[in-house]
Amino acid sequence: MRRKQQAAAREGGDWCRRRARRLELKPRGVGEIDRGAIMAQQGGDTNDSLRLASLWHSMHAISQQLSPTPGCEGIDLLQAHNFDLHCFQSLTGTKFFAVCETGAQNIEVLLKVIYELYTDFVLKNPFYEMEMPIRCELFDLNLVQVLQKDRVALLGR
Amino acid sequence: MAPVTGPKSGDALFASVDRVNAELFTLTYGAMVRQLMTDLEEVEEVNKQLDQMGYNIGTRLVDEFLAKSNVSRCVDFKETADVIAKLGFKMFLGVTATVTNWDAEGTSCSFVLEDNPLVDFVELPDTCQGLQYCNVLSGVIRGALEMVSMKTEVTWVRDMLRGDDAYEMRVKLIKQVPEEYPYKDDD
């Protein structure tokens, strides 16, 4: 049973690399974001992100099948004990998700702004290959700026 | 952050994106086609290459369009065609297209462009008969629609560079291909 699960996870992961983006809401190497401080994650690397993204992608897909009524588009919000996970799915199927503190406001708007940043700085980069991890400096720079602005708006500093 | 609003109109969209000098755009495209003709020599090869380039552009362009225009999911192909003609073309080319010639099932229609910024100053010589100069546009539409789960076929019906009175491309919806998940029930 365990081997089946691992094989399925690997297959799912390989395939899920294609359609999931783990949006690290901070420069590369930093982990979860909370509005008060940006914390560094121990040993966060691309493989961890991809694994998380593929896991999320699978959960998102399963939720569509779990829904008692047809027309479920997936998970928008996951509320856990000490964090919230907000997810935004574009009409093209690309998902952007953000892990933040419980009760964080306006994350959906933030995710939409990040979607625009993605279309401007990632998709328009001719050397960015679709479905690959994002390594675009301009995207990272602008992302940090958006987050700083958002933080200033919320905290006033 | 600004509150989320409904879909923008074509003019508002066009005004909100960064624009480039139209001549620069036209001349760059012309240089590209000219270079392809020199490199590939065969008109059919150039047509295919333009379509492929358009396809690659379309797959990326659609996300920008969806992000900036804020449109919601279209209920049917008719709405999709209207959105492309009124908002899509307006946002990226600054011109609107008209949608005509719907077939009985509502899966096939024509986009008619009176004005086409790609072809300003262009005259096709006799050596380039058979060249679909604007083939990149058909690729863009095909690529963009494929990213939103629609498999389509786009062909040129009328071309002003060949003496017709307008540019008309026929878009046919072949099938909807919803996202598939590779879950197996047994192993």
Account of the 3D structure:
The complex is a heterodimer of chains A (157) and B (187). Chain A is of the alpha+beta class and 157 residues long. Helices cover 45% and strands 16% of the residues of chain A. Chain A is globular and about 40 Å long. The relative contact order of chain A is 0.14. Chain B has 187 residues and is an alpha+beta fold. Chain B has a single domain, classed as Muramoyl-pentapeptide Carboxypeptidase, domain 2, CATH 3.30.1380. Helix content of chain B is 44%, strand content 15%. Chain B has five helices and four strands, in the order ααααββαββ. In chain B, strands 1-2-4-3 form a four-stranded antiparallel beta sheet, with helices on one face. Chain B is globular, with a radius of gyration of 18 Å. The mean pLDDT of chain B is 89. At the A-B interface, α1 and α3 of A face α3 of B. Chain A: It comes from Leersia perrieri. Chain A: Its main location: endoplasmic reticulum. Chain A: Pfam families: Sybindin (PF04099). Chain A: It is found in: Endoplasmic reticulum; Golgi apparatus, cis-Golgi network; Golgi apparatus.
